[in-house]
Specification:
Blueprint (H helix, E strand, L loop, with lengths): L1 E5 L4 H12 L3 E5 L9 H11 L3 E4 L6 H4 L3 H22 L2 E7 L21 H17 L3 E6 L2 E2 L6 H8 L5 E5 L3 E2 L2 E2 H12 L5 E4 L6 E2 H11 L5 E5 L19 H5 L8 H18 L4
Length: 289
Amino acid sequence: MKILVTGYGGQLGYDVVKECERHGLNVKGCGRKELDITKKESVFALVDSYKPDVIIHCAAYTAVDKAEDDKVNCWNVNVEGTRYLAEAAKKQNAKFVYISTDYVFHGKGENPFTEEDQPEPIGYYGLTKYEGEKIVQSLIEKYFILRISWVFGINGNNFIKTMLKLSESRNELNVVGDQIGSPTYTVDLAKLIVELIKTNKYGIYHTTNDGYTSWAEFAEEIFKQADRKMLVNSIATEEYPTRASRPKNSRLSKQKLVENGFTPLPSWQDALARFLVQLKSSSIRDGVQ
């Protein structure tokens, strides 16, 4: 099985390539330097040359606030880039994995969103990711659309790294406490993706780590597990204004994964513990104590 992974320079793409390698799969990871997905000719040339059996599309424009003002670039990456890759996959009759987001929903209420709920995107970023979903569904039959949220991994910046960095110079933080979701570890997600692509159980799946929390509670757990002293003040979304709206309810039901016989991701607390171990060992290798 030959696999092409976009977004290799990001958190998820990096771990997907590593997981494929662990399984002995023939995998090619492409970052921005290797492939500009907004150039149709470049996409088709690479796919025609490599002839993958599976394309795992992790590349995306994810700067949620910047997207509100940088709409052309956001659209080109998340919509047109996805279109070119999906068209190339169709030509090769390759399976296609599209990484989507909790932002395709309106983020209201308290009930977990299911895969059957009608999307109502929040913000321009959410709109472009939903447009990507529709393109994939319209062009390809052999697709997996995976909606994820609150991602963290070793290869890039994330909330956990930010919190730990802030703890070096501060002993008190204000963190939003009324946005609820599921932190998701890219190592766990990568394992699930490899499990999925070996099957023909196509469709839309919600693929976050188990359990729900707020950003404030997440921060508290980070400091607790990392043994850092920090006072976390839980504040309302309105007290921390941002350019783009954030969903207050990012709860995603993972029942469809279970019903289709896939291994659910572990709890986010367990994932956090393993990530902190990985982060520490990585720092030691880099000579940073």
